[in-house]
Amino acid sequence: MEKVGVFICTGCGIEKLDIEKLKAVSQEFGIEAKVHPFLCSAEGLEFIKKDLPNLDALVIAACSPRVKTAVFCFDGKYVERVNLREGVVWSHEMNVHTQELAEDYLRIGIVKAQKAERPEPYKQEISKDILVVGGGVAGLTAAIEIAKAGYRAVIVEKEPELGGFARKLYKSLPTKPPYNRLEEPVVKSLVEEVGKLGIPVFTSAVIESIKGQPGMFDVRLNQNGKIVDLRVGAIVLATGWKPYDASKLSELGYGRIKNVVTNVEFEGIARDIGRKDVVFIQCAGQRDEKHLPYCSSVCCLVSLKQSKYVTEKGGNAFIIYRDMRTPGLWEDFYKAMQDDPGVFLTKGEVKAVRENGGKIVVEVANTLLGEDIQIAADYVVLAIGMEPTLKGLFTVKEEFPDEKTVPYKHIYEPRLIKSAEEVEEIKKLGHVLNLAYRQGPELPTLRYGFPDSNYICFPYESRRLGIYACGAVRAPMEITSAMEDARGAALKAIQAVELVAEGKTTFPRTGDIDYPNFFLQRCTQCKRCTEECPFGALDEDERGTPMPNPLRCRRCGICFGACPEKIISFRQYSVDQISSAIKAIQVPDPSWDETAAEKFRFVAFVCENDALPALDIASMNGIKISPLVRFIPVRCLGSVNTVFIADALSKGIDGVLLLGCKMGQDYQCHFIRGSELANRRMENVQETLQRLMLEKERVKVVEVSITDWDKIAGIVNSFVEEIKALGPNPYKGF
Amino acid sequence: MGDILVIGGGIAGITSAVEASETGYSVILVEKSPFLGGRVAQLNKYFPKLCPPFCGLEIFYRRMRTNPKLKVITNAEVLGISGNPGNFSVTLKVKPRFVNENCTACGECAKVCPVEVNNEYDFGLSKRKAIYIPHAMAMPFIYAIDEKSCNRCGECVKACKYNAINLNETEKTVNLNVSAIIVATGWKPYDANRIENLGYGKIKNVVTNMEFERLSSLNGPTNGRIITAEGKPIGSIAFAQCAGSRDQNHLPYCSAVCCLASLKQATYVREQYPDAKIYIFYIDIRAFGRYEDFFAKVAKEKGIELIKGKVAKVEEKDGKVVVTAEDTATGQKIRKEVDMLVLATGMQPSLAENPIPGIELDEYGFVKEKPGIFAAGVAMKPLDVMFSNETATAAALKAIQIARR
After folding, report:
1. Peptide bond before residue B233 is cis, with ω within 30 degrees of 0
2. ipTM score of the complex?
3. Residue B156 belongs to what H/E stretch?
4. Which residue of B has its CA nearest to A64?
């Protein structure tokens, strides 16, 4: 940006700084800084607006970018916030060091504004149609709801008929108070409604490939050998579940004793069995490290429902459970079934299932009756669990360039795949989405095969922009929940097509139009960017040159953090911008500052989502922090290029600290892998340090969370002390 | 396209409002209190990741700050709703905040305010001033005066350098015309005083699970140190599950989160007191879905004892809390003397006792959806945060189907 204006607020304690000196800093850049006592007030804003027509960018030296954000937004202008309030005066004792800190922050702000460029949105001719993969209850609901919202949905189903598992149900759970009457399965009416709404349906069809990006997905279907090509804007994945393989449960009699059946099989025969006594064994192959370690959420309800099938025909039902899991309003259904005289419920452990005189005997220990019991029954129903349809498939390549493991794996179930043959074996399991993404053909999955997401706060945010999972493929759930879930995924799909139509990204930087640009002439095909992007935004040509898909991009900057050639940058978040910011820091050296020996200088790259707010909160709580540290906010720690660290160290910065989010299985990084990648890149940094003959302690990564505001100053201050003990960086003054 | 109204600024309402507005619709979010965040802002951590709620709230707030399609009205109560899908009239009572947008949250006002009152953010376990901001992550990040406790002394007006306080501000009535309504009014903790046998309010160191969240939070009354009312460390602690839930005399339904919340709170205790004895009295541990992993992890910890049995009686003896239950597995009476008892009190829908004319409720006070009026989060049924946000996203879809017409 050429025309940069500098506005300094002196309110909220900022007046304690030497404002004349700050103005002099601005003068270094040939800019006359404007000073106002209360910049966010109506008068302050008028004061700014007078200069607006002559400016491309504004440097607002006032409070944290986290406050008064909307107030300091000016249409079409780039705004750089210099955090003098929380970042300087509230968090530091007033002295010469703190004044120097403020001056450096102003330099950084001005440089960043000068280096920023005007972004142009990546706008394409896009499709707003939405592909729904899977024609079960979740998929049907998603398609219907999408159509009702005014968008065109298309359903693809691999079976010859719509309806999925729900089609096989005899009856459905009660969905309304008083929750005691079983209902006709909803699936029939959903199929009818799909027909009425004229939603195109491809049955007996699988996806051969999906190429492209949100708004421009080119989908190739294979319908019984016939190829169908579609273009869609977003995808709802609703491929549901498969029952756990009951043949692994022979200890419970399955496959060994006639009339030991699964809960899925029982739906098929319940109508016709007549008056029979039935034992239901809960958690069959579930909550069990040998089988499915998780709980499938629905089986307690299903067994209660199936008990009603039994008692309605005059039979008795016995349910042996570990914990009865009927959360929320389902408790009413549980209670209704407890009142059914034909239903007998007990906590207990099944010790044996055997045949005796045409009956099946179930031996149960540790019951609530205080004794071991034996129940003779005509049928035993095993409440087996649900596995997502993504389980076992190749989902994602998650390798690092330096590691030579064979690529595909589930993220937190790292299965070392030893050979290319094994890869071929697993490939035979086939695919669901068949994404032609460099990083793999499916939504990346977590342990157990459920799709990865920031799953507490943002449950739908998958790692593939424009593709949203719902129903039992996403988590085990019953029909009512799957239908509600389908609506949520439908909304996200609609939102995605609307945003990408404007060239905007989605969560967490929703609306951002700026996207990374690649100066490919200098690309060395190292593949770091294509491998590290958590969102699979980058494909590769045969030589390994990245082929960007801006509409898949979430704007975290991990690619530019990865690139050793520094050829990836956003217009308003660039390698040049940050490198220049580091260079703008004045590192005192003895040739011009006689107090230089005590003026150590540190740079801390901080995640703007968590570490930066933690620093703000620390300052509001009056916690003081070393004035020798310059905090540089980054979109994600993964966007910190090791070049920045080398730049800092070779300029005489004494130490570099990286403050990012928690990594690992319970990661808190909003860009999934940013903090983890930053940590991994430290190996390269160590090489740089060796080359520069510097101690490895001078660079450190620390995980902090947003509520670590009580610890963050301690982390920073002790780092400062550690480095001080090492002595100054010998490169000062070079 | 008509506006969408979201009632309630907790996590569900925020999700609905943000998702609908980011899809391109105009949304008005109204919140009864002066600040957004609702119940989750009072929590120390979420299960099962044990991550801080403010981490997600920060992302939501950032998306809200720069979203021109989303308008937030705090201190606003919905008095009534009439009309039809696509054309609802909504009357709001907007209470005065007395502090305007000029506020920089510098904090000088609270320093001089002479009025101290119980801080509802900490369930009265701490004090705040009559002019206040509840915590450093508050949204909007400007102070508010609570009308009831302010004595109009004017000290804050004198202290404010930014002309941000006007004690003469008055209540306003606002009429809105909206096309669809999302009810995300959430819940309140069931009143533990009503559960006679569990000793709450009568015996010291019997606290509710929500109070325990505040006691564990860094920004809470004890700066996150879990201590007894006497300020002593915890050697032993008990959690009583289904305190008022699954009980015909109180909340007949299951509140769906309390088992996991207690398991989570057990980890708070374990983190601070590696040797403390932890007892969890339960009927069924409802750790459904992938939450089972979390249950399995916590249950494996040393010193955590899970006892199947409902707490029958709570007494005080020599400054300790004596908890009696029948162990349903063995049939024997179990007594534990502990330093603190946490009642896993359930969630009662906020509208149960404060209904809004025009919104239909079921027998428990949960919202019955009807055309144009949808529910999100615990206003719909007992849900945890993840499921609340799913229903909130679904509600956004239902609302845009009406609003697009």
Report:
1. no
2. 0.97
3. helix B155-159
4. B104
